[in-house]
Amino acid sequence: MGRGGGAVSSVLEELLAVLPSQVVSADDDVRAANAADVTGHLPGGPPAVVVFPETVEQVQTTLRVAHRLRVPVAVRGRGTGLAGGAAAPDAGIVLSTVRLNRIVSIDAVDQLAVVEPGVVTADLDRAAAEHGLRYAPDPASSEWSSIGGNIATNAGGLHCVKYGVTRESVLELEVVLADGSLLRTGHRTVKGVTGLDLVGLFVGSEGTLGVVVGAVVKLQPVPVATETLIAWADSTATAAAAVAAIMSSGGRPSVLELLDQATLQNIDGHSGTALAGQGDSLLLVQTDGWAADREADALLAVLAAAGADARKLSADEAETYVELRRSGRGPRPDLWTIGEDVAVPRSRLVEMIRTIEAIGQRHGLLVASVAHAGDGNLHPALSVAKRPGETAPPEVLRIAADELVRAALAVGGTISGEHGIGALKREWLADELGEPQLDLQRRIKAVFDPLGILSPDSFLAVTEERQLVP
Fold first, then answer.
1. Is 42 among the domain residues?
2. pLDDT given at position 415
3. Could you tell me which residue ranges the FAD-binding PCMH-type domain spans (predicted)?
4. Across the strands, what pairs with 172?
């Protein structure tokens, strides 16, 4: 339920009494611009106020006010999330971390960086490169997304097949809890097993347990060499079988991506390329390290044996193909689209791709899939043409999405590989975790946030009914 106008005014007055006016905004345009992530999901009205802290102390002050008034708070990075996890609470506070954007230090010997949550992911990678290092997690939104948002969702990216998701690169965290207290957890050492792994608990918690205000993250040496291959296949199933062959060959690629025919057509339409006519599906493969060339040659043979037409790329070609994978696609205003993010065991990848295609055919939908295929993470988009007068997506899209997610669970997969659960995928959460584990997770949240003011519309929210039924 929304809060009354008097309560909204009280929140604003209380914050202005203890914070500099330049970090507090109740401007209509500012509130609207910070109310949701890219999904546009907004469960209620706009927030009462947006706070842009510039110091850790200002984050603490904001949460102390919220805690005392029992006002809900949503933490927002740069709004690139794809699961509705940063949706503003009705008449509550949006706490934006964009001004906490310092790279505090980079240590080339210990190979780590100390950063604030508002640092843009690609900016950290570029700064690390000056020391011969890199930040391995690389979501497609790396030029816009922030480290804090990556930590909140345990973001992935192209290099995860070799270097792991965000959790594998976070060593230490500073977190402001719901009552405004400051917690430091983790360690900067290569090894450390003291106590429970609270860092691992905070990573992927989507703002439900506290506000990350600082992080020590692991850096990797820039590879001495990188080789890039492309391979064309006559179907997505053939491409997926080639992925399985690579992963069972003993090779360890640093990138292994799959793009289907509809995705190639989309890239051609938005980037002026001519990919779709060269094959049904495309694999993009990279190897790196001292033996990158030998490993690439070995994978060329594996791909050929799996029925794919593969070749090495020059450095310039490689840069082009990687960028097309990251940003070559564009929106289709003539279509209603639901994008998904599921992951399955690599041994079930071929089966899952065939199932997704069958779901699309059964419901008369266009299916366009890209995948971090090396780790079984699929991003299928289900689309249908907009009809004159339609103002909302037809129910068939939601039904097909439900079938797709349940199919992933049926083969031992997960409902999200890297985008998080947020509000938009929580309807399937109990199907994967089971009610006892979901209840335990809610009780853990209550330890950190006993009043339940953080991210009230999150994946741990208790809902009265599911959006879809089996």
1. yes
2. 97
3. 42-222
4. 186, 216
Q: Are strands 49-51 and 93-96 parallel, antiparallel or unpaired?
A: parallel
Round to whole Å and give the CA distance between 116 and 255: 28
CA distances from 295 to 67, 145, 298 (A): 55, 32, 5
pLDDT tens readout for residues 375-399: 999 999 999 999 999 999 999 999 9
pLDDT digits (tens, 9 = 90+) for 53-82: 999 999 999 999 999 999 999 999 999 999
Q: Locate tokens 């037809």: which residue?
A: 394
Q: Is pLDDT at 466 greater than 90 in this prediction?
A: no
Contacts of 467 by beta carbon, 8 Å cutoff, 6+ apart:
398, 427
Q: 346 with 428, same domain?
A: yes
Do 321 and 336 fall into the same domain?
A: no
In this prediction, residue 7 has a pLDDT band, given cuts at 50, 70 and 90, of low
CA distance 333 to 349: 30
CB 103 within 8 A of CB 125: no
Considering the chain, what is the average pLDDT of its residues? 94
Pairwise CA distance, residues 456 & 212, whole Å: 17
CB-based burial, 207-220: b 16+ in 10 Å, e otherwise: bbbbbbbbbbbbbb
pLDDT at 119 over 50: yes
Looking at residue 154, its amino acid is: N
Question: In sequence order, what are the beta bridge partners of 397?
Answer: none
- Residue 51, token pair as written in the block: 């706070």
Are the CB atoms for 74 and 94 separated by under 8 Å? yes
Three-point CA angle 395, 396, 399, nearest 5°: 90
Distance CA 29, CA 43 (A): 18
Spatial contact of 346 and 247, defined as CB atoms under 8 Å apart: yes
Helices (H), 220-314: 236-247, 261-271, 292-305
Q: Are 375 and 417 in contact (CB under 8 A)?
A: yes
- Of the candidates 86, 85, 12, 96, the one whose C-alpha atom is nearest the C-alpha of residue 51 is 96
Together in a domain, 74 and 170: no
Give first-to-last CA distance, the chain, whole Å. Answer: 29
Stretch 104-108: mean pLDDT? 98
Q: What is the pTM of this model?
A: 0.93
CATH code of residue 341: 3.30.70.2740
Q: Which amino acid would we find at residue 326?
A: R
Element (H, E) at 50: strand 49-51
Domain span at 212: 103-221
So what's the pLDDT on residue 44? 82
For residue 184, what are the β-bridge partners?
Answer: 174
CATH number of the domain residue 316 falls in = 3.30.70.2190
Q: What is the CATH number of the domain that holds 92?
A: 3.30.43.10
Number of domains, the chain:
4
Verify that 262 and 317 share a domain, yes or no: yes
What residues contact residue 332 under an 8 Å CB cut-off, 6+ apart?
Answer: 266, 383
